[in-house]
Write a structure and sequence with these properties.
The chain is of the alpha+beta class. The chain is built from ten helices and 13 strands.
């Protein structure tokens, strides 16, 4: 049985066990305080005996006992200091006040001295012990704050809890008297240990565990013994060890447990250790919950974007396919209508229109297939050395019907071969030039240039059209994005041309960027790596 499956079997047994553990710890602390107090009193008594001896001749050296009271208060707190003050009063009365070796006092003035000694000793012991306790508490709070700051810094520096968990459990083991610390997450059916200071060791099983309970009303955390609820699982931890757990909860959701092993001889964790473990568990739980919410938000956003993408695809495809289909049906219907008299030229014109619309449909389908290949990671470019001029010229010739009298200025010069896929690079240049032709008016210039930058060849396609607003530039590569407010013809595209360009270029190991052109329109730059020199035979 994993310790995460523990259940509270007996609250009374837990309470009695806790009380027994606290009493034994108090006894050990009281024993140490008694030894220190006895030693301090003995030293003070010896010093008083020397000072009040005939050789020295001091009448009243009782203030020396205040040193013993103060030392006891510094080392062991208020109760030990008060006990030491009463003991000092009794010792001085018995050993140094006439008649000696009795509690009787012969001179009434001695009572005043003894009572003053007792009062001053009690006050000094109380004050010294209280200030010492405050200093210790301040030191403990400082150590606790430092440890929590370290945990927060590591959680902030790592993108996930798993990346920071190993360091965090090591820090907690060092800050507490735990010999092993690990974090176990559970989802109701399984457990996952994400960090452990003792790697490779099996997770221990205990018949009972100590669980840290933190109240929501601001009460201090306290430990409660919880007995195993699953019989048949034998304990695997040594009898001298105990298992301690702090639940990881956030927003009422149980996420896991922060577990640790501690020797029985170390006793119950102190207030500082308990607060540190409780605060660390709270930070870990919040980090886990934040990761869960981030994953849920990401999954929801993916679903939303997927639905948006599907809707945009259906809308765009249905619109752009409906138009050529309507033209094809109209032309074909007219050709088959016996009531319409066609000349040979009119038939050829109708056939050319049907062919052009069929070609447009083919391009739409091909664009959608190209986009699917990019999204599915199915592109396998066949890279080879290509001359940019030999790739650009056939593309320009193929787009001659779209030029409408516009000139395309080619300024490539002498460029080295690029390492690219011939089909993909042809599609990239065709999309860019077709985009420039469709979005520029007749008479505006279109330029295809090239330059060498470092280890790449930069091919540039720019036009003198209306251009694109600066705020729209970062979105041009988005799927189905059309620049708002741009004057369009009757045949707007799907808005995936530049998405295909970027996907093809990146598949070939290049980069693509957009900007404003000095000609007045859009400038698209494609950077491809220079092909390596062929080996010398």
């Amino acid at each position: 049985m994993n310790a995460d499956g523990a259940d509270m079997r007996s609250a009374s047994a837990a309470s009695s066990g806790r009380g027994l553990r606290v009493s034994m710890g108090d006894l050990r602390a009281a024993g140490r305080a008694g030894l220190v107090s006895a030693a301090a009193l003995a030293a003070s008594t010896a010093a008083v005996g020397v000072l009040e001896s005939p050789a020295v001749g001091i009448d009243d050296a009782s203030p020396l006992y205040l040193v013993a009271v103060a030392a006891t208060g510094i080392l062991h707190g208020t109760r030990a200091a008060l006990v030491s003050a009463l003991a000092a009063f009794a010792v001085y009365d018995v050993l140094f006040t006439e008649p000696r070796l009795t509690f009787s006092v012969a001179d009434p003035r001695e009572w005043l001295d003894l009572l003053l000694l007792l009062f001053v000793a009690l006050v000094i012991g109380r004050l010294v012990a209280r200030e010492t306790e405050r200093a210790r508490e301040a030191d403990g709070r400082a150590r606790e704050a430092g440890a929590l700051f370290g945990i927060s810094r590591r959680l902030a520096a790592e993108p996930t809890l798993r990346g920071a968990a190993s360091t965090i459990v090591g820090d907690l083991a060092g800050a507490t008297r735990m010999i092993r610390v690990w974090i176990s997450l559970h989802d109701g059916t399984s457990h996952d240990v994400i960090a452990d200071t003792t790697r490779g060791e099996p997770i221990p099983v205990a018949a009972s565990t100590w669980t840290l309970m933190t109240g929501g009303d601001g009460t201090a955390p306290h430990w409660v013994a919880i007995h195993s609820a699953a019989p048949g699982h034998r304990p695997t931890i040594p009898p001298e060890m105990e298992l301690w757990g702090v639940p990881l909860k956030a927003d009422g959701v149980a996420l896991g447990t922060l577990w640790s092993l501690r020797p029985r001889a170390s006793g119950m964790p102190g207030p500082e250790e308990s607060r540190l473990l409780a605060a660390a568990a709270n930070q870990l739980a919040l980090a886990l919950r934040r990761e869960q919410l981030d994953r849920d938000a990401t999954e929801a956003e993916i679903v939303r974007q997927s639905d948006t993408l599907k809707s945009a695809l259906l809308d765009s495809v249905s619109h752009d396919l409906r138009t050529p289909l309507a033209s094809i049906r109209a032309a074909a219907g007219s050709l088959t209508d016996p009531a319409v008299a066609w000349t040979d030229d009119e038939r050829r014109a109708a056939a050319r229109e049907i062919d052009a619309e069929a070609e447009r449909m083919s391009q739409l389908v091909q664009s959608i297939l190209d986009l699917s290949r990019i999204q599915g990671g199915a592109l396998q470019p066949e890279l080879e050395a290509l001359d940019p001029v030999e790739v650009v010229e056939p593309v320009i010739e193929r787009l001659e019907p779209l030029r409408d009298g516009r000139s395309i200025l080619v300024e490539l010069g002498a460029l080295p071969p690029v390492r690219a896929d011939a089909v993909l690079l042809d599609t990239v240049l065709a999309n860019l030039l077709e985009n420039a032709l469709r979005h520029s008016t007749p008479g505006t210039p279109i330029r295809v240039g090239g330059d060498v930058r470092g280890g790449t060849v930069e091919l540039v396609v720019e036009d003198g059209g209306p251009g694109v607003p600066d705020e729209a530039l970062p979105r041009l590569f988005g799927k189905f994005y059309r620049v708002p407010g741009r004057i369009r013809g009757s045949r707007p595209g799907l808005g995936i041309g530049l998405s295909i360009v970027r996907g093809f270029v990146e598949a070939m190991g290049g980069e693509v960027s957009v900007g404003q052109s000095p000609l007045g329109g859009l400038r698209v730059s494609v950077a491809l790596p220079i092909a390596p020199e062929p080996p010398v035979p």
